[in-house]
Amino acid sequence: MANPPSTDTVVKSIDYTMPRTDWMEDIPPQFIPNNYSNPAKPDQLEYFFGYKGAKEWLPTHEDWQLPENWQEIIYEGFRERLEKYRSLKVFMDICVRCGACADKCHYFIGSGDPKNMPVLRAELLRSIYRKDFTTVGRILGKLSGGRKLTKEVIKEWYMYFYQCTECRRCSLFCPYGIDTAEITMLARELLNLVGIQTDWIMAPVINSFNVGNHIGIPPHTFKDIVDFMVDDIEELTGKRIDPPINKKGAEILFIPPSGDYFADPGTYTFMGYLMLFHELGLDYTLSTYAAEGGNFGLFTSHEAMKRLNAKMYAEAQRLGVKWILGGECGHMWRVVNQYMDTLNGPADFLEVPRSPITGTVFQNASSTKMVHITEFTADLIRNNVLNLDPSRNDNKRVTYHDSCNPARAMGLFEEPRYVINNVCNHFYEMPEQTIRERTFCCGSGAGLNNDEFMEMRMRGGMPRANAVKQVHDQYDVNMLACICAIDRVVFPPLMDYWVPGVDVTGVHELVANALVMRGEKERETDLRGEPLPGKEG
Amino acid sequence: MNALYALIMVLALVIIPLLGAGAAGWHVLFGVIVPYLAFIAFVLGFIYRVVLWGRSAVPFKIPTTAGQQQSFPWIRRSRIDNPSTRAGVVVRMILEVLLFRSLFRNARVRLFREGPQLSYGSSKFLWLGALAFHVSFFVILARHMRFFTEPVPVLFNWMETLDGIMQVGVPTLFATEIVILLALAYLLLRRLIDSKLRYISLPTDYFALFLLFAIVISGVLMRYFLRVDIVDIKTLSMGLIQLQPEVPDSVGVMFYTHLFLVCSLLVYFPWSKLMHLAGVFFSPTRNLPNDNRMRRHVNPWNYPVKVHTYEEWENEYRDKLKEAGIPVEKE
User: Fold this and answer.
1) CB contact under 8 A, B294 and A366
2) What is the ipTM of this complex?
3) Which residues contact B111 (CB under 8 A, 6 or more apart)?
4) Domain boundaries in chain A?
5) Domain spans, chain B
6) For a tag site, which of A524, B20, B176, B282 has the least CB within 10 Å?
7) Integer Cα distance of B215 and B208 in angstroms
8) Total-model pTM
């Protein structure tokens, strides 16, 4: 990992004044360590996509080893997608370049690079569309904003479509709802067609496909991890729990993001799930086949997304559960809420989700049959079935980050807040322009949470971190809560960089801290082993 | 440079009728043939573009959710910004199309290097400018309907009275003419002055603005300065609409210039970004409800894909599974 430069250097380098040159002439982009992701390996592409003839290349190389007929491939791929996606066709046609989106992108705010303005990111594709697919563009060429598809353009696409986290913040402000995430997704599909893809996305995709989760944790190791957690929970609470794995006939299949059983602080959130389910006596099961809620296919292609997502329904059917409960994960919920039913449904072998504890029927999930854990828990708290002691979280001054996807592809705002407010006594909102539907990305989503991209991650995370800094300075906030496993992995370094002194937690870690379990021993510490308030001595 | 190209193109469009209808006196060409052709081109082009959009599939339901989802009765949901019903979508679209709801959210980011601190100031000028332009354009268009109706419906008369309510000057000055000129000037100046806007602006962005400017200016000149015979113009316009075109002698070259520029706009419209007028209705992030988990959306081209089945997976891990005490299908 190349260390990012100091915060001072980064802040000084940001300049929102644009060059006086024509953007179409500012190519190719400069690939320097820290501003790009490493490419996928040929065997990965061949294995997963059946892509033949891929060769090794590096972004810093002059020759990217494109196939001989690469222009034709891109052209055909583009034409096909214009027919398959009205979104693409309309978004290519109707932008008026009003500039409302320009300063809405976290990468633009953190870098000042003009091509990170969403409008220009889309123009990178749109300029080719105009030249090759519109009558006026064919005749007028550059005058109507068209340009030729060259190898430099491909390099530019790789740079900037892998500097977009598909967070959709720009689409909120666009008067026509042009969604850069959609454009980036399809541009990445086009790049796939000529063998251009990142290693950090392909590796989790293949692991998820083959093994069942991003990191490639095999089932027996998964069991070991769960056993470790069970020991920790016993030490903490004096209660021995026994989480079911691949249990046929359970009522509910629970699917977490794998980040939650792989690394701190996500693991505490996972322990939180297990403690909550045990306390409820929930008839549920984990699965080692569908052990991943996250879906890096979303960052690759619609087809890859479908291939990975298929496991959820398949496993639910095999185990004979009634419905599915999903953990705290951001992009997983974009897939579950907006794609899953369409891609892999109808899930008519499942039942409309009903909480066995409160009897609440989750009508809003009546077709997809999958419920978000904060919906589930909010309902429990509302119905007073949990014994909660929020004072156990009194040493935590908490703020909450709305993860992009549950925010702008779902509208999950009140449920997590309701939960947090019931398990914590000190909760503070960040500035209004940076939360809820206006929330800022962590800067590392959409498969960009790799180490070689660290400087851009710190830059892209700046608006979020800066908002945290404001509540840190004003209210002494020391804990950033979120409902996304990628957040939990990428926020710790982001906070260390911009706002030292702020830790990161999942919502269900806070829940588990506050949860008074029947017959538990008096707790001395929180899930992390830190002394509880009043027990510091 | 881009602005200059556009300006030259619009000036060329001004010169054509000045020479053709003015110097050469081809009144039938500029008063009848060009308007008919332009109108046909507009209608056909418009339909063609809309049909093309309509032919593309809508594989997924991907609304941008801008408010609380529908979950429990005790959580107040945002019926308009995150609609889960058709009616909600209709209201959302109406707010979007008539009041530019999304643009109203606009806020400008500022970076203070001390700190550093990012702040987000409300920024409604673009919204105001855009709304001012579109509303006055619409009113002006409606006012012009008096040239194509006899008797003039009372609605258009009211509109005209309202527009001239300031009662300044003879003939009465229309408020919309001032507003549209100011709005166009604002929209043009921000492209020229704001470095971000200048960087992203294409020649076509300036072309649309200059063309609209030219249309408004020629209209204003005709009404207030180079007085033209309104009765003759109505004879011409009524003739056009009744398909019995007749060309009076005394309508004057400024009228032909105005008309030619409008024709240019009609022809240009379907092939340009101005189609956002229709396109906004097709935008899948706005025109679909967020009811994905309640009602399944069908993708017309959904196709089977290669998956890693449980059976294959168990075959690979059976021994390990058994060793770890995890249940298997086949012993």
Assistant:
1) yes
2) 0.95
3) A11, A14, A16, A109, B117, B118
4) 7-197, 206-514
5) 2-304
6) A524
7) 11
8) 0.96
